[in-house]
Design goal:
The protein is of the alpha/beta class and 164 residues long. The protein is 32% helix and 21% strand.
Length: 164
């Protein structure tokens, strides 16, 4: 059994319309939600062995803030394929994770992440910014990742968790 943590980037800022999408930073709410989610993961025993993130600024910052706040020792990797990826591409990326990792976290964007959760679990929850899906995969190696192999164990939405 493997556990996949799917973390959508925290709320980004639209204050700089001249910036390309790839360079958008987090806004103040996002800067609070990202570390909160790291702390929440740690408190729930959800500690990733590997973290793979989109290199887009808002995803990269979310991954770093969550990892720091959670005290995760996992190496943080950036994979350009995550940015703008659909469910199929994301599944291929996950299939390449090191098998020594029992718990892995991927950090990125919608609509791909919402579609990934749906493809793996058959469930289609609302997946707002900084949401975390915890998916149990009935697999022994990551290369076995495919549609319908997962069960959505929990979904954490920071706005609901933080009470605001």
């Amino acid at each position: 059994m493997k556990t996949l943590l799917v973390l959508r980037h925290a709320k980004s800022s639209w204050d700089y319309p001249e910036l390309p999408d790839f360079e958008r930073p987090l806004n103040k709410r996002g800067e609070k939600a990202a570390p909160y989610m790291g702390e929440l993961m740690r408190s729930k025993g959800l500690v990733p062995d590997v973290i793979v993130s989109s290199p887009a600024k808002r995803a990269k910052t979310t991954a770093r803030l969550a990892a720091e706040a959670g005290g995760f020792d996992a190496e943080l990797e950036f994979d350009e394929r995550v940015y703008g990826a659909g469910a199929n591409t994301l599944a291929y990326i996950i299939a390449d994770f090191e098998d020594s990792a029992d718990t892995a976290m991927i950090v990125g964007h919608n609509p791909g992440f919402e579609d990934l959760v749906g493809a793996l679990t058959g469930e289609h929850p609302r997946f707002p910014t900084a949401a975390l899906a915890v998916i149990d995969l009935e697999i022994s190696v990551w290369s076995e990742t495919e549609r319908g192999k997962g069960m959505l164990r929990e979904l954490f939405i920071p706005k609901e968790e933080m009470g605001g």
